[in-house]
Amino acid sequence: EAAAGGIRLVRYDASLERRLTQRATVAAELRRALANGEFHLLYQPIVELPHGRMTGVESLIRWTRPDGRTVPPTEFIPVAEDTGLIVELGAWIIDAVCAQAAAWQRRHGPDALTSIAVNVSARQLVDPALPDIVAAALARHRVPAHRLTIEITETAVFGGGRALATVTALAQLGVSIALDDFGTGHSSLGLLRTCPVNAIKVDKSFVDGLGGTPQQEAIVTALTGIAETMGLRTVAEGVETADQARRLFELGYRHAQGFLFARPLPPAAIDALLAQPHPA
Ligand code: C2E
Ligand code: CA
Ligand code: CA
Ligand code: CA
């Protein structure tokens, strides 16, 4: 790189150009996909330990392209964030989740699910319109605010500012706020002081550490201890084995989510679970 007569000469970088072109293509694709109705939501049960009864669900987006290929969110959510399209896509997700919540309430009663969670990304949290978007969706579908949980990551609210103001406004609507991937950021504990939080979702990496060193179990124990003291709900994420579930219960965990209990499921499969008679 050199400056010549005020013009910056940047060394030609083919791989960068390829990446940028790819991004632009994916962004255009996403816009078309949204207009074309190619997105849908799956719902993964959140269960109570030790019996595994479903008390809530988390919505997880899927993109099925016209050729039938399903693109995982880890591939397109970052692009949607970078291009700002996540604001439009996010509004669609929030409305779809509220519509689904209303349908389940009608079919299975208002208390069938304690909470329905929706993931909201950092880019959405700096949009001052987000609380209005959420309030409008709740009102449109007549879903009580306390039935909706907004999952945010700690990096999204780290540093305060507008994101923190948005979260505070969301909390004032009466929706529940959950800190996702808890423990993986730089300020997990600090955030519990500044950010209005109702629940923490302990990251899968900690669950994977169970049965490892005593230090690893000590962290898992401490996380739910702090949460309980602060009156927060704790959900353990990514539970895959019965041993993990048993150990989590012994360590004081009462809520879990993971492939052991259920994968993300289409809405009809959640209906089937809700229609089952509850064990006493
Ligand atoms: P996340 O919010 O941490 O969601 C949990 C991810 O872990 C989901 O992956 C879920 O399928 C997966 N998972 C659940 N239980 C297990 C388990 O026992 N083992 C393993 N290995 N994985 C498990 P998914 O659906 O691919 O979503 C990945 C990420 O994409 C999400 O992580 C979230 O950050 C983002 N995402 C998904 N849907 C949305 C959405 O609607 N909006 C936004 N902004 N982000 C979304
Ligand atoms: Ca999540
Ligand atoms: Ca998570
Ligand atoms: Ca994650």
From TrEMBL:
Keywords: Membrane, Transmembrane, Transmembrane helix. The keyword Membrane applies. GO terms for molecular function: cyclic-guanylate-specific phosphodiesterase activity. It comes from the Bacteria. The keyword rRNA processing does not apply. Residues 23-278 form the EAL domain. This is Diguanylate cyclase (GGDEF)-like protein.
